[in-house]
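Run log // design_07
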């Protein structure tokens, strides 16, 4: 529950930026550009956070494997909170000109670094506390922070907008949800500081298995397995960010849907995503996660074929079906991708190794997805190019997952040094 609380707050900060980039930042920080170019510029600053995430993953992963999981996760939460709070205080372009987008990008980098240390660390922290037979369930709780953070961000965004009205909210009220980050992070810290250190890391330290350069050691898993793991998880990130971020700007600017309607629909879909993760992780613990992951990858590919055609009808009921479908299908693979990545690496280097894979997939998938989708939309004039982009990346991930699971047979032991075999708990 502590890792869930922490990841929810970190993703709240991150998704708050995504929602604001889709609906607000083009006017506040890029007013001299056309609406299409301003949206593309706003999404490019959104992508900057993903570029910064590997740096955070490398730094926090190194120290997480060297000094412990708990301390690094506390620092990552503080860093994210500082970045988000200060974004709410940046003057607009009309006030300070060029420096407004510069400060926005700088604080977005801080956000990215903070989140880069969170994703892998929270998953392995929870997973390493898991009792036998519940590894996927425990590893799924930090994954719930992704839709949980989106729901929290959108609810606060909607409530603030409803109370203030569109004009005041666009002018300055959008800052309030960012400034609230300070309060929410303080609550998160109280919860996170009560968590004990990972039992697995305590044993690593007791057995003198801490290595000097954990990242280099983690790469000894081998390029084929590393590359296939990265490919297997990249589609989930891409599809999720098109669903959560790009849909808001596309639906409101090109299809005429009401902004509030889109935010509410995405929020309800994210709540469905949140609620179903424990169900899917229990199935994975009972029946194995590999078949479920491959089936989920195929389901996402098929739904991407139908997603934009449903939205493009302009029918609100069909749009809700499209969005709720995403909320139901995305968690099938998302809930276990963290445990798949973590199980790739030995216990004493898994923070570093997992961070590389997780953040690499986030850049190739989620970070670039809204910007690529906007560029394809502007160049082609329709959503067809975006659909083919999603289908293509889903096909690559599905092929990567099949190849990965053939490379590493079901039940194969984790690549853990002999003294640490007892820490791994086996693979599902």
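design_07 sequence
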């Amino acid at each position: 529950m502590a890792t869930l609380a922490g990841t929810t707050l970190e993703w709240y900060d991150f998704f708050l930026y995504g929602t604001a980039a889709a609906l607000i930042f083009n006017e506040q920080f890029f007013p001299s550009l056309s609406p299409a170019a301003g949206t593309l510029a706003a999404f490019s600053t959104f992508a900057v956070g993903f570029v910064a995430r590997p740096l955070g993953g490398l730094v926090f992963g190194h120290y997480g494997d060297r000094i412990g999981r708990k301390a690094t996760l506390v620092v990552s939460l503080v860093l994210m909170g500082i970045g988000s709070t200060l974004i709410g205080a940046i003057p607009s372009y009309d006030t300070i000109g060029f420096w407004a987008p510069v400060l926005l990008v700088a604080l977005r980098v801080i956000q990215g670094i903070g989140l880069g240390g969170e994703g892998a660390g929270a998953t392995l922290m929870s997973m390493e506390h898991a009792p036998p037979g519940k590894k996927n369930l425990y590893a799924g709780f930090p994954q719930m922070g992704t839709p949980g953070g989106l729901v929290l961000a959108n609810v606060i965004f909607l409530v603030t907008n409803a109370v203030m009205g569109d004009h005041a909210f666009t002018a300055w009220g959008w800052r309030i949800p960012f400034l609230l980050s300070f309060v929410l992070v303080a609550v998160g810290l109280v919860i996170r500081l009560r968590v004990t250190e990972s039992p697995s890391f305590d044993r690593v330290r007791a057995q003198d298995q801490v290595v000097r350069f954990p990242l280099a050691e983690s790469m000894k898993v081998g390029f084929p397995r590393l590359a296939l793991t990265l490919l297997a998880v990249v589609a989930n990130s891409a599809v999720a960010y098109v669903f959560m971020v790009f849909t808001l700007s596309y639906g409101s600017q090109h299809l005429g849907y009401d902004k509030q309607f889109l935010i509410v629909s995405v929020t309800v879909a994210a709540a469905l995503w949140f609620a179903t993760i424990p169900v899917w992780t229990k199935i994975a613990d009972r029946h194995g996660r590999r078949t479920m992951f491959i089936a989920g990858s195929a389901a996402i590919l098929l739904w991407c074929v139908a997603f934009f055609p449903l939205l493009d009808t302009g029918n609100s009921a069909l749009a809700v079906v499209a969005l709720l479908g995403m909320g139901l299908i995305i968690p099938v693979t998302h809930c276990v991708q963290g445990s798949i990545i973590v199980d790739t690496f030995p216990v004493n280097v898994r923070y570093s190794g997992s961070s590389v894979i997780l953040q690499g997939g986030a850049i190739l998938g989620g970070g670039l997805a809204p910007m690529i989708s906007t560029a394809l939309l502007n160049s082609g004039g329709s959503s067809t190019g975006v659909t083919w982009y999603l289908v293509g990346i889903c096909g690559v991930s599905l092929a990567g997952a099949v190849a990965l699971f053939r490379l590493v047979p079901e039940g194969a032991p984790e690549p853990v040094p002999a003294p640490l075999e007892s820490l791994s708990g086996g693979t599902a």
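The radius of gyration is 21 Å.
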